[in-house]
Amino acid sequence: MTTSTNSAPRAPLPFLGLACAVGVSTIYYNQPLLLEMSRTFRSTPGHTGFVAVATQVGYAVGMLAFVPLGDVLERRALMMRMYAAVAVSLLLVAVSPGLNWLIAGSVLLGLFASVTHVALPIAPDLVSHEQRGRAIGTVMTGLLLGILLARTFAGWVSGIHGWRWVFVVAAVMNAAFVPLMWKVMPRLPPKQKLHYSDAMKSLWTLFRTQPLLRESSIIGALVFASFSCFWTTLAFLLHSHYGLGAGVAGTFGIVGAAGAMVAPLAGRLADKHGSRWVISVGMALLAASYFLLWGEEPMHTSTTLHLAGLVIGVVVLDMGAQMTQVANQTRIFGLVPGARSRLNTVYMTVYFTGAAIGSALATVAWVHWKWNGVCGLALCFIALAGLRHATGSRDDAADHHRAAAEDALMEA
């Protein structure tokens, strides 16, 4: 394999953030709509909750299958094709005649929505090594706002036209993004001459030779599992405790967006203090958020005060999750620059597997133990992440392992 000597093409970081937002938002539209879907298909919340799980499973599989193509093919054309496929998948979800069809369509939607992680690894190519954290933080802001505001968009549109129209409007948005990407993005050829089969084989090589990648993947999966516990069951909590619907559940996305704005700061702190320090702070915030969300719920106060407690908890929850995510990706993107799409494939496949597990177990916890079970489960995930972090490697191990990984990839 030969590495390209061409300099990295220039593209605006905010546009990459928009690309990530458009792609990733599609897999979160369903979360505030689960109760409405239950009514449409006359199913229980326990069964409908697996629509969210199916989307995340599809996303994880899509990252494993499609994201390595970012190191093999010209990325602008690849992203345009995937956005077009996302638009078609959204229409299939919108017209689903039954719950099983909806789950199948959600898997397909997740598969192609993995285009987000074809776009994200481009960010470090556009700046110097010393500014890697800032660039990732900038693009991650768009991605995180897409995750959170998707719920707001879904809740509001469904309140006007019903849940199916959420996916119709989203399909139009994604289809419109295809020519926009052609106009704004430069051609993005791969850095290496690499066959897809070789790229897939090298995923195991990267996983085997990069202890920091393994550590970051496990921590990220556990953190995202805890994060998914809250968002998968929020609509159930608001409905059962306060009689509130999808519109209010979606509005909490705006609240979470305030916490997501910490992403650029997290990137700068990772550049200044190291990623490990930022991860420590992020996990402390995550634990604090769940103690607040759990502790305020049984208190005998007004609905207004309960919702105020939820608002504060959501902001802290999102701050902790985003700090941990930005720091993890800053670490892994510094390992083997020529294999960033594949590094991201390994990391995000494990990451969204954690999300799917968290959503599935949170649904079960809600059915059997309600909010106590959800918060207890989330804190268990955070405790496991903290244990792995405490016993993990240091950031300065990255340089030691980079050369070994590059040698191994050359031999693979």
Give the H and E element order. Answer: HHHHHHHHHHHHHHHHH
Tell me about the largest β-sheet. Answer: none
The oligomerization state is single chain
Count of helices?
17
| Termini Cα gap | 10 Å
* Radius of gyration, taken over Cα atoms and rounded to an integer in Å: 20 Å
Provide the residue-averaged pLDDT: 85
Q: Which bin fits the share of residues in helices? A: over 70%
User: How much of the residues is beta strand, in percent?
Assistant: under 5%
Defining key terms:
412 residues, mainly alpha
Explain what the structure shows.
There is one protein chain. By secondary structure, the protein is mainly α. Helices cover 78% and strands 0% of the residues. The protein contains 17 helices and no strands. Helix 5 packs antiparallel against helix 9 and helix 13 (263-273) crosses helix 15 (303-332).
Strand and helix map with partners:
Layout: H1 13-25, H2 34-41, H3 45-48, H4 50-66, H5 75-94, H6 99-113, H7 116-119, H8 132-161, H9 163-184, H10 196-209, H11 211-242, H12 246-260, H13 263-273, H14 275-296, H15 303-332, H16 340-390, H17 397-411
Helix pairs in contact: 1-8, 1-9, 4-6, 4-16, 5-6, 5-9, 8-9, 8-12, 8-13, 8-15, 10-16, 10-17, 11-15, 11-16, 12-15, 13-14, 13-15, 14-15, 14-16
Question: What's the quick description here?
Answer:
This protein is 78% helix and 0% strand. The protein is mostly helical and 412 residues long.
